[in-house]
Amino acid sequence: MYIKDDIVYADNSNSENIKVEEIKIITDLCMLVTFNNGEKRIFDAKKILNYPVYESLKDYEIFKKAYVEHGVIIWENGKIDISPEMIYNNSYVYEQENVI
User: Fold this and answer.
1) Taking the chain, what is the end-to-end CA distance rounded to the nearest angstrom?
2) Is the CA virtual torsion 30, 67, 39, 4 positive or negative?
3) Is 72:84 a contact under the CB 8 Å cutoff?
4) Which residues, other chains included, contact 25 with Cβ-Cβ below 8 Å and sequence gap of 6+?
5) How far apart are alpha carbons 77 and 57 in whole angstroms?
6) Contact by Cβ (8 Å): 46, 28
7) 2-93 in CATH: which number?
8) Please, what are the averages of pLDDT over each run of 10 residues along the chain (100 residues)?
9) What local confidence, expressed as pLDDT, does residue 79 receive?
10) Whole-structure pTM over 0.85, yes or no?
11) Which residues, 6+ apart, have CB-to-CB distance to 70 below 8 Å?
12) pLDDT score of 38
């Protein structure tokens, strides 16, 4: 990952073709993200809040209005976005327990 002009760009990893299919806000700054490869992962946005472009996400009212457009997570009508590679590479696997 690298940042240029307050824009976060993903690195060249094996997650290059990854896209976000669905998101679910689970706490103030965490979301459950479903990717096009079927994986579900937990992303904690606290990691990105020190970058000026993401500062407004500290406001839960803004953060919870995230949506997916063309495989990318978007806020504020496209003023803020984050690449699926960044989300994938900075999240951890969600392992749901089966309840019987």
Assistant:
1) 41
2) negative
3) yes
4) 31, 63, 64, 66
5) 13
6) no
7) 3.30.2020.10
8) 58 69 94 96 93 93 95 95 94 76
9) 94
10) no
11) 19
12) 93
